[in-house]
Model the fold of this input.
Amino acid sequence: MELADRAVGFLLTFTSLSIFTYYTFWVIILPFVDSDNFIHNYFLPQEYAILIPVCAGVVLLSLLCIFIGFVLLKSKKKTA
Amino acid sequence: MKHVLKLLSLLVVISALWIGLLQASIIPQSHTWLLPIYFVVSLGCYGLLMVGVGLMRFPTCPQEALLLQQDIAEAKDFLKQKGVDVGSD
Done:
């Protein structure tokens, strides 16, 4: 049904746009703001801006490798 | 092989640009260190955005779907007349 497709598409665009704006704010704009501004309460400390993408990337890569290994093992078991 | 070489050369150019930016200190140094991660995250975001936009604008063509169903029914009738087993209905 196209309504479900549209809803999923809208959710995806919304998620991606929000992640992009939050991350841009975090990395580029926040270092120029004074450190006692109220806006700093809404953002995690700056170290997490590096930690979270790196952790997510590592998790993604390991999941990919696990999946590939799984598929390879399954195909080997079938031919053997 | 040529596509891999193209990608590798692109990577080399981008890393050379980044190291050049680091040395020249046009932007504050703390910003320059974060630039690669920022670009990777924004690239992932852009991919997700394109997928979402494509999903939203996907055309379903209801008239073509109806015509296709009619074609399928017609083909099934024809084959059944000729004696071919068309499976479950």
Notes: The two ends of chain B are 49 Å apart (CA to CA). The mean pLDDT of chain B is 85.
